[in-house]
Design brief:
Radius of gyration: 35 Å
CATH topology of the largest domain: Beta Polymerase, domain 2
CATH architecture of the largest domain: 2-Layer Sandwich
Strand content: 5-15%
Helix content: 55-70%
Number of domains: 3
Shape: rod-shaped
Length: 365
């Protein structure tokens, strides 16, 4: 999918493949023009993976400020490279983790990459690489998943006059950090709920009545805490990459930018630092709740072992008495007693009750 955004608003919509609007009107398939709600329609049936939402000239690459490549095909990459003269990084190159591969300059262009969270607000969210190629004339972004931040920035800059690549990049950094903050806030709320359920709700009676339900609840809490821990780790990786990009731009690549853009980028850097502190707080809270949940599981296991221990201790005296009077000796005076059998039964009951009363007095049951 290829989308391009022009430097000036109000011009003809581009299709991203060098076709004019007159050519597209001749096709009876659906176009890529925005509808009244601002959403973008599907591309022509012949190229379902390619669409362009732009207000530029009829050929992508003529005067675009931003070219956005989403799951690009080889043809789209070749088209962008020919129209801009820039090298588009591959997916493998975007996955590199060393700093020298994530932020560097080559041939007058600044190459940046960072992992971002795709499907951030769904349970199956995952880190996927995103790349940025910045020059004075154009910004190229390469990604392989949908990101809410990119969609929002695309809607913002669709009708912006005098759009520059640096402004688009700053908007993207702001939007990415903003969505990261929203995700951290949601994780914080979920952790507060887990903490409240764990420490502020008395469910001791319910636990005694239904041990299986309590165990399943603890397992569910463990899964929730684990998922939030994974998501917090993903946010940490994403913020680390974005922070590296912002720091690199402020130090080496934004010398000729407008002062306003530099200030906004500095604000983004400050936001990342504060979010890193908040993320560290959430990570500590996740670890604390994980330890607490495991502690509750250990307490339940100890309760089960305690019940079994009490039952075994209470059963020792009756077994001992039954064993004594079960011996086959001829010289046993109790065998000739008329009340020998009731006496032995009563003695076994008595010796069973005594340990239970003792445990109850001591508060062990």
């Amino acid at each position: 999918m290829l989308q391009s955004y022009p430097k000036s608003a109000g011009e003809t919509v581009s299709k991203g493949a060098g076709r004019s609007t007159a050519d597209d009107a001749a096709d009876k398939g659906p176009t890529s023009l925005p509808d009244k709600s601002g959403e973008v329609g599907e591309a022509a049936p012949k190229r379902p993976s390619t669409r362009a939402r732009a207000t530029g000239k009829t050929e992508v690459g003529t005067h675009p400020a931003w070219i956005d490549l989403l799951n690009p095909t080889d043809e789209e990459i070749e088209q962008v490279q020919k129209s801009t003269g820039l090298r588009v990084p591959t997916r493998d190159a975007l996955r590199e983790i060393e700093s020298s591969s994530r932020v560097y300059q080559d041939g007058g262009a600044t190459y940046l990459s960072t992992p971002l969270i795709a499907r951030a607000f769904s349970p199956d969210g995952a880190l996927t690489p995103a790349g940025f190629v910045l020059t004075h004339d154009v910004l190229i972004t390469v990604r392989y998943s949908e990101f809410v931040a990119f969609k929002l920035v695309g809607e913002q800059v669709a009708n912006v006059a005098d759009l520059t690549p640096s402004e688009v990049l700053v908007r993207l950094m702001e939007s990415i950090v903003d969505k990261g903050a929203d995700l951290l806030e949601r994780i914080g709320e979920e952790l507060d709920k887990v903490s409240h359920d764990a420490f502020h709700v008395d469910q001791s009676r319910r636990t005694r009545k239904n041990l299986a339900a309590s165990t399943e609840k603890l397992r569910h809490a463990l899964r929730r805490i684990g998922q939030m821990g994974d998501r917090t780790s993903q946010i940490r990786d994403s913020l680390l990459g974005v922070g590296r990009i912002v720091g690199y731009l402020l130090e080496t690549a934004c010398g000729d930018w407008k002062p306003e853009l530099k200030q906004r980028l500095s604000a983004v850097k400050a936001d990342i630092l504060s979010l890193n502190d908040y993320e560290a707080h959430l990570a500590n809270k996740v670890q604390f709740l994980l330890d607490a949940t495991l502690g509750f599981i250990n307490i339940e296991q100890n309760d089960i072992v305690k019940v079994l221990t009490i039952a075994s201790i209470a059963g020792v005296p009756p077994v001992l008495i039954a064993g004594i009077y079960g011996m086959n000796f001829h010289a046993m005076p109790e065998l000739s007693w008329p009340w020998g059998y009731p006496l032995s039964i009563g003695l076994m009951i008595f010796t069973t009750i005594i340990p239970l009363v003792w445990f109850k007095i001591r508060g062990w049951m």
